[in-house]
Amino acid sequence: MIDARSVVFEEVPCDFCGSNDAVLLFSGPDRLLNLPGTFTVVRCSSCGLVRQNPRPTADTIDFYYPAGYEPYSMAIDDEPTPMRRWNRRYGMFKRVRAIERRQGGGRLLDVGCSTGNFLNEMRRRGIWQVEGVEPHVQAASYARERFGLTVHVGKLADTELASGCFDVVTMWNVLEHLHAPMANIRTVQRILRPGGLFIFSVPNLEGFGVRMFRRFWMGWELPRHLYYFPQAVLDQMLSTVGMQVLDRDCLVGAYPSFLLTLRFLLNAVVRDTRFSRGALGVAGSMPMRLLTAPLFWGLTRLNYASLITVFARKEYDECAK
Question: Which of the two residues, 275 and 111, has the higher pLDDT score?
């Protein structure tokens, strides 16, 4: 059983260019789950990729992923209220629509598929053959038993998937969690067919949240997020392995991430008090949401929300790169 005392930290070079030279950005706690530790974020002096360094090792970071971690969610149909079912299904619909605008069916692999909700929604469309990869044994078991999905347990690099066999590979809020993002990007390129799509979402370093709230921004999510990708650097990483960015889109609105960031800021400044709870209640109220809706709609449309989805295509020339 891993506890905080068993977590091992390691110093690592930049995953993209291999440089050890870096500029300190800030240090902070686990603001989401309040698990123990102080964690440091640096920017590579050579290429600009941002990373957590030092970081928990791959063998011991599971301590920071408890069973109640939010992405390990129940089936949408099992939600107790119609509103929650509608809200979650609408979020899935936006993903489905974004994919099918660019690819009209085929074989799809979801990396970090968690409990399988997204894959289940895609399968229900009737035009997709779906598979998943999930390192968390309990989440993968849930996806298999609840939905009857094909889910490979483990890391993407360890799965025996044939080259050029998928039309689409998705990673929803996964790439920033990986200890070796470049190795995973290379694997994605290998298993995509020529012209296939790599669709993934990551924290948006060009968004308004990080610029306004800095170290309190929800996108840092220390210590579970290990890498953060400036757009120019991410373009280079993909280009290196023979993929080209086609488009970027904020599929998740700016308002939910603003509320979470506001919670982190208030808890850091005034702690969990009646004032902070009241302020969050007002910020999350329907009148406030309606009043600020045009502002946050505009920020989302301009791709300034805290999560950005990237659409990249594998080059048709398999010999490229």
Answer: 111
What is the percentage of the chain residues whose pLDDT exceeds 70?
97
Q: Where are the beta strands (DSSP E) in 210-273?
A: 227-228, 243-249
Could you tell me if 103 and 128 are in contact, meaning their C-beta atoms sit under 8 angstroms apart? Answer: no
The backbone torsions φ and ψ at residue 54, rounded to the nearest 5 degrees and listed phi first, read: -70, 170
* C-alpha–C-alpha distance, residues 235 and 243, integer Å: 9
Peptide bond before 82: cis, by omega within 30 degrees of 0?
Answer: no
The helix (H) or strand (E) run that includes residue 213 is helix 208-213
Average pLDDT, the chain: 92
Determine the Cα–Cα distance for residues 266 and 264; give it in Å rounded to an integer. Answer: 6
- The domain defined by 4-64 carries CATH number 1.20.120: no
Would you state the pLDDT for residue 70? Answer: 65
* pLDDT of amino acid 317: 67
What number is the average pLDDT over the span 255-265? Answer: 92
Q: Which of 229, 219, 234 is nearest to 312 (CA)?
A: 234
Please report the sign of the dihedral spanned by the C-alpha atoms of residue 35, residue 179, residue 310, residue 199: negative
Mention the CATH class of domain 76-215+231-253+307-314.
Answer: alpha beta
